[in-house]
Amino acid sequence: MDVTNGAVLFAIALVFIAAVIATVSAAARVMVDPACGDGPPPPPAVTGIGSMILLLHTLRTKGFGAMIHEQYAKLGSVFTISFFGLKTTFLIGPEVSAHFYQGLESEISHGKILEFTVPMLGKEVGYGVDIATRTEQNRFYVDALKPSKLRCHVGPMLQEVENYFLKWGQQGTADLKQELEQLLMLISARCLLGKEVREKMFDEVFSTFHELTDNSLRLTSLLFPYAPSPTTRRRDKARARLSKLFAEVVRSRKSSSHFRQDDVLQNLIDSKYKDGRPTTDAEVTGLVIAILFAGKHTSSSTSTWTGARLLSHKQCLEAAIEEQQQILKKYGEHIDYNTLLEMCFLHSCIKEALRMHPPAPTFLRKVHRNFTVRTREGHEYEIPRGHTVASPLVINNNIPYVYRDPDVYDPDRFGPGREEDRAGGGKFCYTAFSGGRHACPGEAYAYMQVKVIWSHLLRNFELELVSSFPETDWLKVSPEPKGKVMVSYRRRTLRPCATT
Ligand code: HEM
Questions:
Q1: Is the C-beta atom of 289 inside 6 A of ligand 1?
Q2: What membrane topology does the UniProt entry give (predicted)?
């Protein structure tokens, strides 16, 4: 759910920056905080209104990534931006990121950053409950989405994908972004929420879900989640409606024992805490909303970016098609969990699209206990308690000593012999799905659904990108392709590869 952090930071930064610019003025300066005690010094810091004006200027003219990149080039891989007493320390590169991802919750955590999710998800789950309960609930997600449970979703996913594209004619044009958003909602309804929702309640559940997330993510709700405003009232009304809808489904499932299903909702209903207590209806509702929220937008923007990148790189497109031909030759048209695992090049295409277009561009944590980092160059810094720390993927995913020619779309960088995400500096080189304690439990499911969609498209359509390559819409809560992504399509039946 950290997918929102980048935008929250961005929005908060804008509000603070605007306020300060209106009231203060001083000379620009970059200074180093004095060392405290005998330990390593604190990181170099950017402070003062002048520096802030320069930062804001870069933010406005070149974007968030360029703003952080400038400071990285000037100050190195660890630096603090100090603003009105609010200190955010940026940690850039795998060498300084381990504690960020692996530190104990008592030492480094989301703090209050995700508090705005409580009215949206409910006080029975996530940041509405204590850390022990939250950890157990996270185990429910991990269990419901583990590989042995994912196998049964391939059939229903395929069915949704095949049915969806039946409505496309022999040839035509379509907005890929809109089509994939719609398709992924149908897949979520079927595989996460189950047959009843997919067949009888789809429109109502998803229009209410949109009403809920839309109003939860507006600036007023993010900054003042409990203020009585029209936005929070609409949010609460949608939340109440969604609770009622899910409660009906859960109750009807509990009362008919023969109606046992394999979807994620059923897994959450069957989940038990360590003391044997089963999940309540309210907890199941909160957990299911959280999973929809975490998976929906991230997956649809990734599917669209994967398409836009593939269709703009002829060689990659040809290699992805050839892989499908090889698989057709080996297994025929049948697709199951194992066939999907063999789509290694397609997997790398998705992974590379995520490296270049992460739906969560920055992760944030709050430091509760000082910790020390050591940079690649051997400098040590102590990050003090009270700082907010940021791991900016927009920079981390583009470090040239980790990723060769980072601006180039090159899926083979993850293939055998290169494996740049591991060779370049250990396990925190690639964090599109976060890592350590808060790693996304839906990663395997996400790859699975994007592969089901793209293997179907590659096998059944010749596609061409007819609009220009999309820019990133940074003003969205989770950055996504800006505007329409128009493709032309012509039906075809891909034949198995002729070569041995
Ligand atoms: C390409 C698609 C996806 C990406 C890039 C992605 C990425 C992430 C990230 C970055 C986090 C936050 C980790 C943190 O707090 O540091 C996260 C959390 C989460 N994701 Fe995903 N995700 C994707 C798809 C999915 C899907 C499809 C599901 C479920 C079916 C899912 C379920 C979750 C859940 C439940 C959490 C919260 C875990 C917690 O509370 O610690 N995600 N995801």
A1: no
A2: Single-pass membrane protein
In the sheet with 108-109, reading across from the earlier edge strand, the strands are 29-32, 44-47, 78-83, 86-91, 388-392, 362-367, 108-109
Q: How far is CA 42 from the centre of its chain?
A: 31
Q: Which of 5, 9, 298, 428 to mutate to test the pocket of ligand 1 (most atoms within 8 A of CB)?
A: 298
For ligand 1, atom 12, the nearest C-alpha belongs to 2
Distances (CA, A) of 384 to 29, 100, 337, 389, 492: 22, 13, 47, 10, 60
Length of the chain: 500
Neighbours of 255 (CB within 10 A): 8
* Residues paired with 175 in a beta bridge: 486
> Does residue 323 line the site of ligand 1, with CB under 6 A?
no
Nearest CA owner, ligand 1 atom 20: 440
Taking the C-alpha atoms of residue 23 and residue 7, their distance in angstroms, rounded to an integer, is 25
pLDDT 10s digit of each residue in the chain, 500 long? 444 444 434 444 443 443 333 333 333 333 334 445 578 999 999 988 888 888 889 888 888 888 999 999 999 999 999 877 789 999 999 999 999 999 999 999 998 888 889 999 999 999 999 999 999 999 999 999 999 999 999 999 999 999 999 999 999 999 999 999 999 999 999 999 998 899 999 999 999 999 999 999 888 888 889 999 999 999 999 999 999 999 999 988 888 765 668 899 999 999 999 999 999 999 999 999 999 999 999 999 999 999 999 999 999 999 999 999 999 999 999 999 999 999 999 999 999 999 999 999 899 999 999 999 999 999 999 999 999 999 999 999 999 999 999 999 999 999 999 999 988 777 899 999 999 999 999 999 999 999 999 999 999 999 999 999 999 988 777 889 999 999 999 999 998 977 55
Amino acid sitting at position 386: G
pTM of the model: 0.91
Smallest CA-to-CA distance from 46 within 7, 75, 12, 16 is with 75
Distances (CA, A) of 238 to 207, 208, 231: 9, 6, 11
Q: How far is the CA of 296 from the centre of ligand 1 (A)?
A: 10
Consult the annotation and say whether 349 binds a ligand. no
